[in-house]
Amino acid sequence: SSKRRPQAFQTSAMLSTRLSRASALIRVVRPAMLAPARRGYHKTIVDHYEAPRNVGSMDKNDPNVGTGLVGAPACGDVMKLQMKVGPDGRVEKAVFKVHPLLHAPLLPPPRVGLALAQSRGAHLSTQTFGCGSAIASSSYTTEWLQGKTLDECATIENKDIAAHLKLPPVKLHCSMLAEDAVKMAIKDYQNKRAAMQEEEDTAATA
């Protein structure tokens, strides 16, 4: 795609600090977003905004959990996505949270945070605040991920999320965040598993 994608934040400490500070503001900014402008938005977006399917977070130190942190400074969006992989290699649980970057001036309230997990028949959780399109993208993505393998999850594309939700062109960055967060979570999980395998191999040859 020729479109510029949201910047991925690699520094977990930096982003975690922003998420923590944003959480402290949620009680103040959330009420103003309870009645977002619905004109021009498809009913699917409104449905996911008003009743997000999945809310929650998981232990980032769990070896079966992959975490992705991505952000779009231009629009003030930060998404945390986690995935937990079950014994059968499928998404067991997925959760996410979205917050605004606090250095941006008067941004819409926090968005959604997603955490993924892998194993058949899992329950997905989402915690969403702010932009309706971001919440909808996160909520739908967790539903889509459920029960899928890592390879299947890696095929996710923002254009498919946008098409399902019928996102307006100015909100396509929300679906891009969801895609990038999923792929970063997958990579984090794979890195953890590779490190564990290396430790096991080293112990076996010691």
Automatic annotation (TrEMBL):
Domain NIF system FeS cluster assembly NifU N-terminal: 41-97, 126-194
Domain of life: Eukaryota
One Gene Ontology term of the molecular function aspect: iron-sulfur cluster binding
Gene3D superfamilies attached to this UniProt entry: 3.90.1010.10
GO BP annotations listed: iron-sulfur cluster assembly
CDD domains: IscU_like
Entry protein name: NIF system FeS cluster assembly NifU N-terminal domain-containing protein
Organism: Prymnesium polylepis
